[in-house]
Amino acid sequence: MKISTFLVLFSLMLSSKAMAISDLTPEYLRCEYLENPFIDEREPRLSWILASEERDQHQTAYRILVASKMELLEPGKADLWDSNKISGDQTTQVIYKGKALTSRQKCYWKVQSWDKKDQPGEWSEASTWEMGLLMSSDWKSKWIGKDFSSNTLPIPYKNKELLLPPSPILRNKINLTNKVSKARLYITSLGLYEYLINGKKVGQDFLAPGWTDYNKRVYYNVYDVTDRLDQGEHVLQAILSPGWYSGYIGYALLIGNPIVRAFYGDTPALRAQLEVTYSNGETATFSSNEEWKATSGGLVESDILHGETFDARKVPEDWSKTNFNDNNWDNAEIINAGKRNLELYPAQPVQVTEVIKPIEIHERENGKFIFNMGQNFAGLVKLKVKGKAGDKVVLRFGEMLHPDGRLMDENLRMARATDTYILKGDPNGEEWTPSFTYHGFQYVEVTGFPGKPTKENITGLVLGSNTPRVGHFETDHPMVNQLYKNIVWTQRANFVDIPTDCPQRDERMGWTGDAQTYAGTAAINMDVSAFFTKWIQDLNDAQWDYGAYPDYAPAPGVRSSDTYAPGWMEAGVINPYEQFRAYGDTRIIKKGWENMERFMAFHDKKSKGAFFYPEGSFADLSPKGGYGDWLSIGKKTPPDMLATMYYGYVAQLMSEMATAIGKSERAIHYQNLSKKIKSAFADHYMDKATGRLTTNASAYGDGKGYVDGQMGFSGNTQTAYANAIALDFLNEEQKKIAGEHLAELILENDGKLATGFLGAKQLLPALSATGHSDLAYQLLLNEEYPSWGFEIKNGATTIWERWDSYVKDDPEKMASLNNGMNSFSHYAFGSVFEWMFHNMAGIRSDEAGYKTFIIAPEIPKKAINYVAASHESIHGKITSSWKKENGKLIMDVSIPVNTQATIFIPAKNELDVTLDNKRLDQHKDIQLGHFYNGKQTVKLGSGTYHFVSSID
Ligand code: RAM
C-alpha cells in the first residue's frame, strides 16, 4: 500500500470514528414544534432532545445540516445549510439560518451533538419539513361553492328558528397523463371542508381549517396525496359546511343577539389545488374553478352546534366514479371571497384520538334507547344500522341523565346537538359518521332504530386537537387519580382547535379567563406549543383597537356588550408568558410585543395613572366589574381589587418577557410599574395594622349589575389572599400574615373552599407557599360540597363548571340547580392540577422550558403514601416519584440529558439521605446543597437517581 493511500484510509478511519465517540444522540427532531411538518415560517425553529446512558451529560456544541435532497444530507454536501460546529447547549428553538426558503421547498435535516468532553455523538436520524405556498400568486385556484340559503326553510326549534341549508357537494374529473412521483393538495375553505379522491377522504382531520378571524387570516392545510394518485382518471370531490364561518356561533341565539349565524359570510366556499409532479418531471395543477360541478347531496343539514341530518337516499349514486354523469349538475359558483390572507395551519389538526365502546344500554319508552359511553367526552358517534330505505335514526346527545333516567338536555340550551340518519336501505347494512359537527356527551339517546340496537351499533369517536400527551400523574389515592383523569378528559374535550370553555352547549367559545387560568396545567398534560401558537394569534387578532384583549377569541363582540374583563383580558399577556415558560419560546413574545405594550397602555389609561383600581372602576362593563371570581361561593371578592392584582401581575410578566427578548429598558419600566402597583394595592386594599385585605364595600351599593352582587363584597376572602400570595403581591412579612388569614378563613368555612375561577387556581399554591401544605391537601381530598371530590363522589368523569353541577340521588336539589348554565366539561377548575404537579410531585421549571428545574415534593402526613409524575418537556422526560414505607421516604427522579435539577429531599437530618444506597455526603462527585427546613438539597445533572431518607 502506498503511503498516501494509507494516510487517506487512516484519516478516513479517524474521521468516521470521530463521528461517534460519545453515545450522545439527538432524537425527536421537531420543526416549529411539529414532526416532519408542512410550514410557512421562513425562519423555522428546530428542536431536538438528547439521549445518553451517561449521567450528568450535556451538550457543548451541535451541528445542523439541511439539504434539499436526502442524498445531499451529508457533511460537505448539504446545499441549504451547514451550521458547522456551534458551541453551546441549545437544543431548542434553534433558528434556521440557511438559504432563503421558497414555496414547496422540501428540507431534510439532521443534527449532531458534542458531549461535555467535547466528543461528538452519532448524527440523528434525518427529519424533514416542507414549505407551503409562500406567495399569494402561488394560489391558482378559485373560491367555489353553491349557495342554497335562499331556498332553505327555517326549522322551528325551542320557539326559535334554525336555518340549516344543505351542504353543497362539488365534483371534478381529472386525467393524469403520466405516472405520479409527487402530489400535494393545498386546500382551505370558508366554513369547513372535506375533500375526497375517488370517494375516499383525504387526511384524517375534522373541522378543518379551524376557526380564526377569517377577515384577518384563513388557514390552509397541505396533504401529501402521492399515494392516492396513479396515471389515469380520478374524481376529485368536496363537501362543504357552514362551520364557524357561516354557521351558528356561541350563545348568540340564546341571548337574542340580532345576528346569530353567518358572522363572517353567508356561503361556505372551497379553495383547493392539487399539484402533481409526474415522473417525467412535468407538473400539472388541478384547481377548484368554474369547471367543477355542484349540487346538494346527502348532508341536508349541517352545523357544529346543532348537528347533522344525513339522508343516504339523496347521495348521488356512484358520484365518486369516473363514469358518473354529472351533466345535470350545475356549475360550481365562483364565490366572491375578497382578498384573504392565507396561512398554513400551525398546529396539530382536530382528529379522532380514541375510539370508545358503550358500556350499557337502557331501553326507555317507545323504542327509545339510551347508550352510556362510560365517559364524558367531545366527539361523534359512528352509527351502524340495517333497515329499510327511509328509516330514520335520531341521535341526541347529553352529558347526564336526570334522576328518572331521562337525557338531560336543558344544559345544552339552544344547541340542538342532534344527528339524524335516514337509511337508503342497503341490505348489507349502513355506516355513518357525521362530518362537520361535534358534541360533548356521555349519553346518546337513540330513537327510530330499526329493531333493538346492541353495543355494536354505536361507537364513540373522541375528537380533539391532536396535541401529544406529555404528562402523567398517579397516586395511591383513587379519588385523586380519578380527578387527574377527569382533568385530562376535560382538556381533551375542550382543546378543539381553540381552547373552548365547554364542548356541549350553545357556547364553546375561547373564553380568555378560562384559558389563562388553565394554560399552565394544559402544558403539563399535553404538548400545547403549536396549539397555543395558533390561539395566541387568534387572541392578538381579536384585540380591541383601544388595547384591551377580549372576553373570548376568536369572534370578539358576538354580543356588543361582551368587551373585556379583568382577569380575562390578561390572557393576552399570560398565555404568551406561559408559552415562554413551558417551551422557552421568545418568538411568541416578539410577535405579540406591540400588542402587549398596547394592552399595558390601556391599563395605564384605564387606571388613570393611579397604579391601582379603586372600587367601581369597571362599573361601565356589562356585567359591572366584569366576571370577577366567576362562580365563587359566598361574599364576592371586589373585581377592582382583582383587576389591580392582575394589572400588577402582568406588569411583572412583561418585565420578565422584556428581559427574555433583550429589551432591558422595558424590563426596568415594567419592573418599576409592578412595584408601584403592588404598593398602591397595599395602600388601598390592605389594613396595615392587621394585614387584612379590605374594601369599601359600600362603593358597590346593593351590588346590582355585578355578578352575584347581591352576595355583598369583601376584601377578606379566600380568593383575595390566594391571589395576593400567589401573584407575588406581598413582601415576606405580609405574605406570612396573609397565609394565616387565608388559613383562618378556610377553617371558619368548615375547612372548605369558596373560590371561583380566579381563586381556585391560586388557592392551594398560596397555602403551600405560606406553610399550610396540610390545608392544601385537606382541600384537595375533601369530598363534601364544594370540592373536587364532591364532583367525583357524584359520578363526574370530567371537571364541572359549577361546584354543584349535579347531586346524585337528590331530585329536589337537582330541580333547584341552574340547568341553563351547567356544563359538565369545563376545564377551568382543573387548574388545580398545577399545584398537584408542582407541589405533590414537586416538579417545577426554573429556567424556561425546564432547562433547569427543581423537584421538591410536599409529603403529606396522611392519606397519600405514593405519588408518581412525569412530564416530557421540550428538553426531555422528567420523572419524580416518592413513596412512604415504614418511616422511610423513597424518592426516584430522572433528569433529562442537558438539563440540571435541584432536588429537595425531605429528611430528618442531613446525614440521613442515601443516593443509590450510599450516604449522600459520601458521593464525591455530587454538589451537595444545604439542609434547611427539613430538606436536604442536591444539584444534579442528567440521569436517574434513587434516594432513601427517614421521615416522621
Ligand atoms: C360562561 C362560561 C365561561 C366563562 C364565562 C364568563 O359563559 O362559564 O367559562 O368564562 O361565562
From TrEMBL:
Keywords from the named record = Hydrolase, Signal
Q: Name one Pfam family in it.
A: Bac_rhamnosid_C
Q: Where is the Alpha-L-rhamnosidase six-hairpin glycosidase domain?
A: 469-839
- EC number(s) of the enzyme? 3.2.1.40
GO molecular function (one): alpha-L-rhamnosidase activity
Alpha-L-rhamnosidase concanavalin-like domain spans which residues? 364-463
Asked if Hydrolase is a keyword of the record, the answer is yes
Name recorded for this polypeptide: alpha-L-rhamnosidase
Per the UniProt record, the source organism is: Cyclobacterium qasimii
Q: Reaction catalysed by this chain?
A: Hydrolysis of terminal non-reducing alpha-L-rhamnose residues in alpha-L-rhamnosides
